[in-house]
Amino acid sequence: MQRKRDKPSSGHQLAKGALSCAPLRLIALDSPTMTQNDSFDYLAAIRARGTGELDSKMGIEIIEASPQRLVGTMPVVGNRQPMGLLHGGANVVLAESLGSVGTQLHAGADRRIVGVDINATHHKSATEGIVTGVATAVSLGKTMCCYFFFSSRRRHTRYEFVTGVQTCALP
Asked: pTM of this prediction?
């Protein structure tokens, strides 16, 4: 007997330009997400709300924002481990911040969101300058959101970078 394939819930959809995990390639879907609103200034809303204490301490600044994609910067100086390298946890904080803000933008101001999972792979380390993190929505659902994260800094002809995935629940 053939088993019928499960369909995703009606509230679950891949975000425009999201990373598809099945064939591991970038795909673009024409259907808008639940929160896509081209006329709303998400960055202004974030700036009006203010940053969290940890983001402020680490020097994180969000420079582009929508539920589908966030870009933020963070200085290496002040976030280094004793050996002089950017602390791996600092990159994870940047990823968590971008994914959490994106989830909040998707969910709306009246919903509470919580991070439930994050992982990061540190490919090359930075020792100076500014790292730029980009969080791209993989899935924006009614109860769960997931973002692919890439943080990098160009140094001469090579990149120092970290990749990861961050997931938030909307209880």
From this structure: 0.75
